[in-house]
GDP-mannose 4,6-dehydratase (Rhynchophorus ferrugineus), 337 residues
Amino acid sequence: MASGDNKKVALITGINGQDGSYLAEFLLNKGYEVHGIIRRASTFNTHRIDHLHADPYAHKGGKLHLHYEIYNLAAQSHVKVSFDLSEYTAEVDAVGTLRILDAIRTCGLANYSKFYQASTSELYGDVKETPQNENTPFNPQSPYACAKLYAYWIVKNYRDAYNMFACNGILFNHESPRRGETFVTRKITREVAKIHLGLNECLTLGKLDSKRDWGHAKDYVEAMWLMLQQEKPDDFVISTGETHSVKEFVQESFKCVGKEIVWKGEGVNEVGVEKDTGMVRVKVDPKYFRPTDVGFLLGDATKAKEKFGWSPKVTFLELVREMVQSDIELMKRNPLA
Ligand code: NDP
Ligand code: GDR
């Protein structure tokens, strides 16, 4: 395959396997640019990127540019799941990061590539200082956060030890219509859409008082790219500077479909009731509680703003509306979705 500047490019899946590694060496000696992606699944899992394959112009006419920029986004990213799959989470999120860094180093690419690590506001955990910035101490509260903490430090270590251009993006929660269905925002907007269309009556959640600094994923991926365009590698907080509770997210989502929710009761008996009809729309189920949870997060992205002019464009209410609207359309097309 030829790229815009006529360099030969090879994409090797299973590049870390025996044949893949030989093939990579072979092609590199021939002057190819070699790209590798790993991961197979027994189900269809490309729906978020199918539109990119379908666009012939994405691969032609110089629109595909090649850079040695590695964005390490792969992870077991669900905090609650990490309590059940703690060892697996450490393998993928912690050691997986080390493996990629080591691969870069041992391939002799340490000084020719740029590396982005998907670090997270979960590192702050049970935090005492607010808002959180790049100097706030970490206090992780889950196997996921502990694994990501290892990844954070190994990125810094490889930067110092091998002079690698490696950055930690400490991103606070970011959502979108493409958010995984088991994260709280998407779970809420999907269920609100169903309730609106008469496909369900009530939604069940865990901790309602958790507060998060929620932004839009579209804004946040731009920040990832910007970090790698700077002269020097560094770590940056990316956040909106606003925090909202799960309850507020629920209320705003219901408002999008013309329903007002009021809260009654306490703890596991707390319910969200539709004001006009008295119908219970939200219940609490302790099965969604985590052994330890993060109660409050609020980021300060001043450094990113000052260094490369980043600030979020989409507001909290715009995000909620976009997600609810998108899920209503989805449920109309496919009520079983
Ligand atoms: P998702 O869970 O949507 O995506 C995770 C990706 O990792 C998927 O492509 C998944 O592939 C892949 N993956 C999972 N396990 C493995 C594995 N064992 N080997 C290879 N690939 C694997 O996460 P997000 O897009 O939301 O987040 C991207 C990254 O940013 C993650 O590292 C996350 O921890 C981090 N992060 C996310 C934030 C957020 O609010 N969204 C905030 C801060 C950090 P598959 O589809 O095959 O499972
Ligand atoms: P988080 O996101 O743990 O912040 O991690 P999630 O949406 O899972 O939880 C946010 C808060 O909502 C509470 N909650 C529920 N959460 C889920 N998933 N399901 C529920 O039913 C529910 N009810 C209440 C949670 O207890 C929590 O307090 C996300 C992930 O994307 C990580 O990969 C990323 O690093 C961080 O954001 C920043």
The first strand starts at residue 9 and ends at 13. Residues 86-106 form the longest helix (21 residues). The chain is about 35% helix and 15% strand.
